[in-house]
C-alpha cells in the first residue's frame, strides 16, 4: 500500500510489541493489529507503546468489539479496518502520523455499544492483583508474587469487587472477575481451538 506514497515509509515490522520496542528503528506511528500471536491484550500493548512515547493506530479485521473497546480505552488515535480500500487506509495513516484522530463509524459503534466503557478506576496495584487472581492464581500465590500479605490481597480483591459493583458490573465470583479482566483488557481474550 505504501510503495507509491513518498511521504509514508514502513521503517520497522515485528510480530510482537516487545520485539518492536527492542528495534532501534525511528518511527512516528505504530500500526497495531488487535490480535498478536503472543496473546497479549490490546490495552497492554497500547500502554507499552505509549510508555515508549509512541502513538498507535489500530489496523484490524474488526471482528471483535471487545478488542476494539480495549484499545479505545487505552487511547489509540483510531481504528481502521483491513477491509477498507487502500486509499482510505493510506489517508488514515497520514492523519494518525500527524497526530490526528481517525474517527470511523466502526470505532464509534463499538464504543457507543459499550455501556460500561468508563474505567472503574483500578490502581496499577489493583490491576496487578486482579490479573494474577483472575488468571487462576490462589490468594497465597498472588501474595507471594506481589510481595503483599494475604490479607492485603483479600482487601484489594474486596475493593476491586466493590468498584465493579458500583460501576454496575458486579463480579462476586472469581469467574466474574476473570470476565471483567478480559473485558477491560487486563487479561488476553482466550483463543479457543487455535
TrEMBL record:
A GO BP annotation: regulation of DNA-templated transcription
Molecular-function annotations in GO: DNA binding
All residue ranges annotated as the HTH luxR-type domain in the record: 115-185
Source superkingdom: Bacteria
A Pfam family assignment: GerE
Keyword line: DNA-binding
CDD domains, sorted: LuxR_C_like
PROSITE patterns, per database record: HTH_LUXR_1, HTH_LUXR_2
Family annotation (PANTHER family): TRANSCRIPTIONAL REGULATORY PROTEIN DESR (PTHR43214:SF42), TWO-COMPONENT RESPONSE REGULATOR (PTHR43214)
Protein name in UniProt: Response regulator transcription factor
Organism: Gordonia asplenii
Amino acid at each position: 500500500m505504501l510503495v507509491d506514497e513518498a511521504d509514508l515509509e514502513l521503517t520497522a515490522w515485528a510480530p510482537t510489541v516487545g520485539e518492536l520496542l527492542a528495534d532501534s528503528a525511528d518511527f512516528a506511528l505504530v500500526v497495531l493489529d488487535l490480535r498478536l500471536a503472543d496473546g497479549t491484550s490490546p490495552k497492554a500493548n497500547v500502554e507499552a507503546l505509549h510508555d515508549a512515547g509512541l502513538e498507535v493506530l489500530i489496523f484490524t479485521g474488526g471482528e471483535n468489539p471487545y478488542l476494539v473497546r480495549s484499545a479505545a480505552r487505552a487511547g489509540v488515535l483510531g481504528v481502521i479496518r483491513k477491509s477498507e480500500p487502500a486509499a482510505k487506509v493510506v489517508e488514515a495513516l497520514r492523519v494518525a502520523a500527524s497526530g490526528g484522530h481517525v474517527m470511523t463509524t466502526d470505532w464509534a459503534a463499538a464504543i457507543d455499544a459499550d455501556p460500561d466503557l468508563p474505567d472503574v478506576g483500578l490502581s496499577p496495584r489493583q490491576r496487578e492483583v486482579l490479573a494474577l487472581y483472575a488468571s487462576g492464581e490462589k490468594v497465597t500465590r498472588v501474595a507471594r508474587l506481589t510481595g503483599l500479605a494475604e490479607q492485603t490481597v483479600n482487601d484489594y480483591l474486596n475493593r476491586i469487587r466493590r468498584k465493579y459493583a458500583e460501576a454496575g458490573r458486579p463480579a462476586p465470583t472469581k469467574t466474574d472477575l476473570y470476565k471483567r479482566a478480559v473485558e477491560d483488557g487486563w487479561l488476553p481474550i482466550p483463543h479457543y481451538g487455535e
